[in-house]
Amino acid sequence: MGRFFLVEHFVSINGEGQHAGELAFFLRFGGCNLKCSYCDTMWANDPSLTVWLSSTDELCELARKSGVKRITLTGGEPLRQPDIAELIDALGAMDYLVEIETNGSIPLKPYHNLLFRPSFTMDYKLPSSGMESAMNTENFALLTKTDTVKFVAGSLADLERAKEIIDEYNLTERTTVYFSPVFGKIEASEIVDFMKEHKLNEIRLQLQLHKYIWNPMERGV
């Protein structure tokens, strides 16, 4: 059975994505191939971090004990775990609804035709992140309306770039699209004004609920 570097697990509400506000059991895996300027889980990427080495069976048992039917795999970058496909199918076979929060750089093709295909919440890293050059735009062709592309914006320039990408790849016709502010960098009202100015009818504004309910830097929520 597969092995995974798990840094924490907990039950909370989904803070973002199409199922924001719904209970989910979170499995957070350590390590990321990006280093975004606004990352709020940088601690999970510390190579000196003490992690739990868990098997597929152990993670499925944690999910069962949680009593929650929606599972969110997050990080770090969960798709960097070599055996993540095995875990996705094992959870799907147990009738769990699996969502993966991924940073936009990892190819989704290996997971697109799984027996129990998960839903993806895929970031597109905008200029202020410092990581836009790592984005894998080939992923856009694999997304459906059950998936989400999230643009986390920290400035007007970020919003302008997001609109360019949305238009270039016809994203609102392919999938569900969200704008979200970098916490503390841009006011939500500025994003609403941008949406009004450009008549962005198919795009949704979303705030990270967990940062308003709890301390923005609190773990396990």
Low-confidence spans: pLDDT under 50, at least 5 residues? Answer: none
Helix share bin = 25-40%
Largest sheet: 9 strands, mixed
Number of strands: 9
**How much of the residues is beta strand, in percent?**
15-25%
Shape: globular
How many distinct folded domains? 1
Q: What report would you give on this structure?
A:
This protein has 221 residues and is α/β, with parallel strands linked by helices. It has a single domain (3-213), classed as TIM Barrel (Alpha-Beta Barrel), CATH 3.20.20.70. The protein is built from seven helices and nine strands. It has a nine-stranded mixed beta sheet. The longest helix is centred in the last third of the chain and has 13 residues, at 156-168.
Q: What brief labels describe this structure?
A:
221 residues; alpha/beta; TIM Barrel; nine-stranded mixed β-sheet; 9 strands; 26% helix; 24% strand
Which helices and strands occur, and which strands form pairs?
Elements (H helix, E strand, L loop, with lengths): L2 E11 L9 E7 L22 E4 H11 L3 E5 L9 H10 L3 E6 L6 H4 L6 E6 L23 E6 L2 H13 L2 H4 L1 E6 L6 H10 L5 E3 L3 H5 L8
Parallel strand pairs: 2-4, 4-5, 5-6, 6-7, 7-8, 8-9
Antiparallel strand pairs: 1-2, 1-3
Helix pairs in contact: 1-2
